[in-house]
Amino acid sequence: MATTVITGRDLSLTIDSKNYGDQCTSASLKTSLERNTYETIDGKVFFALDTEATLEITMLADWGANAPASSICEAMWTAASTAPNTALTYTFTAASGAVFTGSVYPSFPDAGGSGKDAQEVSFTLQGTAKPTLTIS
Questions:
Q1: Which pTM value belongs to this model?
Q2: Element (H, E) at 75
Q3: Measuring CA to CA, which residue among 92, 94, 96 is closest to residue 2?
Q4: Which range is most confident: 19-23, 76-80, 108-112?
């Protein structure tokens, strides 16, 4: 079987129906299980309690550079300020056919920069539940 190499350039990211792949420099969807461990007389027993997901994103900053409707920085800031408990849908797609979908709560992006480097913003969006995976 041939090895398939998937790079970051093979990913696309859509949040609240807007594609941000051209601004995104790094994206990582992390899903974890919370488990309890019980010691019984027969040995250890593991029990899954909950699933947690986060979407960690680093993007080129676009504060004031795009119309407010298409600025990820301004959209996240507004959503976190005015509707922090209202989830936004996302789609995280790999060129290999793996598509992760779910909902995340908005968060305030960082602001700042350094020297001659392009300004980037980083933020972590808390998922509402385990993402759905579809392979096409």
A1: 0.81
A2: helix 72-82
A3: 96
A4: 76-80
Q: What is the pLDDT of residue 67?
A: 65
Q: Does 28 have pLDDT greater than 80?
A: yes
Domain boundaries, the chain: 8-135
Indicate if the alpha-carbon torsion angle 60, 63, 67, 68 is positive or negative: positive
Residue type at position 98: A
**Best CATH choice for the domain 8-135 from the list 2.30.29, 1.20.58, 2.40.30, 2.40.128:** 2.40.30
Burial 36-66 (b: 16+ CB within 10 A, else e): eeeeeeeeeeeeeeeeebbbebbbbbbeeee
